[in-house]
Amino acid sequence: MSDKDIIWPIMALAAAVVALGVSIYSSPLVMGVAIPTLLVSIAVVRQYLERIKIREEDIPLEDFSWWADVGEPAGTLLSLKPGEEVMATQVVASDFKNLSRNADLLSSRLRLLVGRREFINFSPDFTNDSWKVAHSLADLARSIETSGMIESELYKTIEQHAARFDRMANKLFEYEKDKSETIHIYIDPLRRASEKLSRDLRKAASNLYKFEKRKSP
């Protein structure tokens, strides 16, 4: 129902109220027609107002305006010259911090759904998985900054994180299957964010692997 369409139910509601008032001083037949008309009009207006609530209050929960643009994670590593280890650690630490913020943002958006009436069977595991990756990336960034080194085979850990978001995206897809339009409005942006994090982490792992192999004698 469009915003213009609500005019007719409101007019019908007003007419039913007037008819009901007139029927008090008229025949029972008029009252018998006015009461069902009034009930139907109330039901239609209520349904419209519920849809307005979903459209205006619920959808902003999936606002990812604070999503950090990482570009190609760890991509700068491949353009560095041998011996530029300090620059390498700064690049990786910075990208890991941004990826951590994105994972934490996704976790916070997922957390908003836990316990909601429409998501009674929504598992807290979605939130926990994203939160764990966010904190792991933040810890890795701090470790790299503190030690001034990129540990050997770090790419394997990042690949594991990417796989975690792959599984999350698949689970979100399965969760919203055959669900209502309202569920899809919530879940689709979260699933796409999971897929984006998986792609970014896989790209970071690939660049870390190439950088490590390039340093090998």
Give the arrangement of secondary structure elements:
Elements: H1 7-23, H2 28-58, H3 85-111, H4 125-147, H5 154-176, H6 181-215
Helix pairs in contact: 1-2, 3-4, 3-6, 4-5, 5-6
- The CATH topology of the largest domain turns out to be Butyryl-CoA Dehydrogenase, subunit A, domain 3
Query: What's the architecture of the largest domain in CATH terms?
Result: Up-down Bundle
What is the N-to-C succession of helices and strands?
Answer: HHHHHH
From the spread of the alpha carbons, the general shape counts as elongated
Give the overall pLDDT as a whole number: 79
- How many structural domains in the coordinates? 2
Question: How far do the termini sit from each other?
Answer: 68 Å
Rg for CA atoms: 27 Å
**What CATH first level of the largest domain would be assigned?**
Mainly Alpha
User: Count the strands?
Assistant: 0
State the helicity in percent bands: over 70%
Q: State the secondary-structure class.
A: mainly alpha
Q: Please give the count of helices.
A: 6
Q: Stretches where pLDDT falls below 50 for ≥5 residues? A: 1-6, 52-62
Largest sheet composition = none
The amount of beta strand, in percent, is under 5%
Short key terms for the protein model shown above:
mainly alpha; 2 domains; 6 helices; disordered N terminus
